[in-house]
Write a structure and sequence with these properties.
The chain has 4 helices and 10 strands. The protein is of the alpha+beta class and 222 residues long.
Length: 222
């Protein structure tokens, strides 16, 4: 499905009310205003997470987690402001699970687009996915899918959990997804992903404010 170019009257971002004891957000690539560099972010988060977990791992433990966080940030740090990336954190020695959330202008037929975005007809699937309706108070009715797929010629299966919505009132499509070769990790995270999905809302930035003389754009959270 191709995506036609659209002329925007609005731009969007996402608001996510996540639990910082379970989720760690990766800053945009790279947020030099708040963090000196990616290494400082990774080490600071490692130290804080070990402290919150009630353990003193020493330099070896802090460096281990910092290295893992840095690797994940290098791989997944978002560039556009309409994408956010979080990590589901467990024990400091366990591999975090990445979760991506993205919003973009709605395009095309609602049902067709949502089925495309949720991956219902992805040719890489091993078998038809489990797709069901999923509604939240903030985004309305959408779809949720759990599926197994192969990437390229690799024999390794990837487990993927994906949520999608069309927010008609503001003309936006929202996608929330995670994927990993560790199916057990996705199953373990699923209740937390669902809980987090219910907190996601769209923020609309008016590119052409009505009032003259305004500095910046007007935000309208939906």
């Amino acid at each position: 499905m191709t995506e036609p170019r659209v002329e925007l009257e609005h731009e969007f971002s996402l608001d996510i009310d996540y639990d910082p004891s379970r989720w760690l957000e990766i800053p945009p690539r790279w947020d030099t205003e708040e963090w000196e560099d990616i290494g400082v972010w990774a080490r600071t988060c490692s130290e804080l997470f070990w402290r919150s977990y009630g353990q003193s791992p020493g330099e070896e433990g802090i460096s281990f987690l910092a290295g893992r966080l840095r690797h994940l940030a290098e791989a997944f740090a978002p560039e556009p402001f309409d994408t956010r990336m979080l990590l589901r954190m467990w024990e400091p020695t366990s591999m975090p699970l990445q979760l991506c959330a993205m919003v973009k202008p709605a395009q095309g037929d609602r049902e067709e687009t949502l089925r495309y975005l949720v991956g219902a007809e992805d040719p890489g699937m091993v078998k038809p996915p489990v797709v069901d309706a999923f509604s939240t108070e903030l985004l309305g009715e959408g779809l949720r899918a759990f599926r197994h797929l192969r990437q390229g010629d690799s024999p390794e299966l990837v487990a993927a959990l994906r949520y999608v919505w069309r927010v008609e009132g503001v003309g936006a499509d929202v996608v929330l997804w995670t994927a990993t070769a560790d199916t057990a990790q996705v199953v373990r995270a699923a209740p937390d992903v669902e809980e987090l999905a219910r907190t996601v809302s769209v923020v609309v930035w008016d590119l052409n404010p009505v009032e003259e003389g305004e500095d910046g754009a007007a935000a309208d959270p939906r």
